[in-house]
Structures are given as structure tokens and as C-alpha cells.
Amino acid sequence: MIYLDNAATSWPKPEAVYAAADRALREQSGNPGRSGHKLSLAAGRLIEEARLLAARLFGVSEPERIVFTASATEALNLALHGLLRPGAHVVTSSAEHNSVIRPLAALSAEVSKVPADLAAGVDPDRLEAALRPDTALVAITHISNVTGTENPIREIGALCRARGIPFLVDAAQSAGAAPIDTEGMNIDLLAFPGHKGLLGPQGTGGLYVGAAAALRPLKQGGTGSFSASARQPARLPDRYESGTPNTPGLAGLAAGLRYIAEIGVGRIRAREAELANRLLAGLATIPGLRLFGPPPGPTRAGVVSFTLEGHDAMDISFILDDSFDIAVRAGLHCAPDAHAAAGTLSAGGTVRISAGCFTTEEEIDRCVEAVGEIAG
């Protein structure tokens, strides 16, 4: 199979990820923080190593502010439900994922959506104009999962910090694939998945909780600490990590984070840009094909979306899989506002091709050839 659906989940993983998850199940499978025997202590060390590695990657000086979750979706829910009261005013963009849109709807939040240009992203000046004295949060995706458009996070973070407004960044498509410095970018909350650009197993993710963000926990329960108290501990990360953690998954995530630290985010970003640019150049030659998102460039994200005149997006995806053994994704990608902005909502969305750091030039060329055959 030619796998080009890395925006949904990365595959394959580095061999060290498979080995670490297997070893954790076989040799380090105690319940971390719950017992004092060797297996429990070994499991605890695995999790703290993953926490430290994630903190280093995201420029976090206090590793305990990295809270592990089961996904970026859970992390976003913790941030939104933990920070906001019903009816709060929130500024977002037209590029947000349902993992932001739906929690805000559940909270009956008053949402101001700043239009996100398909090529340039959110204009900081337009976002600033949407801020109000009662704005409780700004929540912006770093890189669009539909178009690969990168938003100016550093500039938006500076605006938020100057106004004293908490800033939440959805890093579902950027963690591990683009440089992130939470402190330098004035990010108060950063939600990230473990299974995409960080190359870890599914069922892993996390939330950076900055000092200015005091969140209510989504759940209460056993933490292995302060057990005599009926109240949830105030100490991080215990406050947000009730229950038995996914030790094998986090062991695999630590291996993925080590791999990224060795390769370097800069090299990964350059590689994915190179592949995306090759893909864009090839697809642009196909008659009737329309591309969405930024033009080719040295920092172009690996997400590429297109439509093909006279062809349904879902049909193209099925044919690529069934006839060419090429895995892509078609549809709305859980981001209906982005498709409304692109004019593809009523048509059922786009075909999305997303390269990863293990994708080859030959795979990109074969995909272009296959789409050309379908168009013909």
C-alpha cells in the first residue's frame, strides 16, 4: 500500500515505537504511581520520560505542565470545558475542527469566527478586531487539516498576551511537523495528538497547561497521590490525570519523540514541504483538477486537498484504494467551516492527500499518475 493519509494518523511508525510499546506490555506493565515495586516504578519512569521529551519539543520549562490524554480531542475538551463557563465569548476561525466547534456549541459559547484565507490563514488584524473586553479565550488551529494552511500563531499569541486573553492552539497537524515554542509564542494551552506527527501509537495525546490557565478537571478519581483527601489534587499533572494511564502507548510516544529529537523538526518540515510541493506540481497538470490551500513553498505543510471536475471525492478515494492500493481520505475531514469557506461543503468536501516523513518521491509520483488516470 501507498499510505498518504498521515493527517488522520501517521503510518508506518519508527521501529523503535513498535519495540517500546511491546516492551512496556511485556516488561514494564505495572500501574505507574500506584505501587512501589519494580514494575510500577519502571512504568512511572516511562511516562515521566515521555512528559520530559514532550516538554522539550514544545519549549515548556516545567514538564509537569504536560498533561497526557487519550487524544487531541480529549485535550481540547479539557481546555474548553475546563476553562469556559456557558455563554462565554470565544474567538476562533473558519478553519477549526469539530473538536473545537462541538465543545463550544455544547457550552453555548458566543463564538466570533474570523475568516481564514485559504492561502494565508487568519489575518491578525481581523482577529484583533474581533476581540472584546469580555473575550474569555482565543482558540486557533495551527495548521488546517483541510488545506495545510498555517496560521500566524506567534503574532496571534502576542496579541492575546497583550490583552490578557488565554490562547489555545490546536496542534493536531503541527506537533512534530512544525516548530512550536509555547513560551516564545505566548501559548497558554496547546492540544496535541500522539499518533500523528509525533509518530506514537493511537490513544495518546496531551495538553500543555500554562500558568495562566486554571482549568477544572474533566474527571476526578485515583491519582496515586493525596489519597486521604476526597478532593482532586491541585498539583499538576495529577489534577488532570485520574485513572490508569496508557503506559504502552506513552512508551511508544516517548520513542516517537526521541526519533523526532534525533532527526529534528526542521528536517521533517523541509521533507514534508518537498513532498507536498512535488505533489502540487504534479496535480496542477491534470485538467479539471482544483487545488486548495497555500502555493508551493519551503514551509508548505504536507496536507493537500483537491476536487476533480465531474468526479465525486468519495468515489476518487475509493478508486485510489481499490484499484491503485493508495490510501487517502475524502469528505469534510470534520471541519465543515473550512469547506464552507472553500466552497466545497455542498459537494461533500475534497480529496485529501497527506504525506509523512516516510513517504517517498516514487509514491508521490504514483499517486499523481493514478489521479491522472481517473481524470482521463
Total count of domains: 2
Q: What is the H level of CATH, i.e. the homologous superfamily of the largest domain?
A: Type I PLP-dependent aspartate aminotransferase-like (Major domain)
**Discrete helix count:** 11
Determine the CATH topology of the largest domain.
Aspartate Aminotransferase, domain 2
Structural class: alpha/beta
The 3D shape can be described as: globular
CATH C-level label of the largest domain: Alpha Beta
**Residue share in helix:** 25-40%
What amount of the residues lies in strands? 15-25%
Mean pLDDT: 95
The separation of the N and C termini measures 23 Å
Would you identify the CATH architecture of the largest domain? Answer: 3-Layer(aba) Sandwich
Number of strands: 15
Largest sheet: 7 strands, mixed
> How is the largest sheet built, in terms of strand order?
2-10-9-8-7-3-4
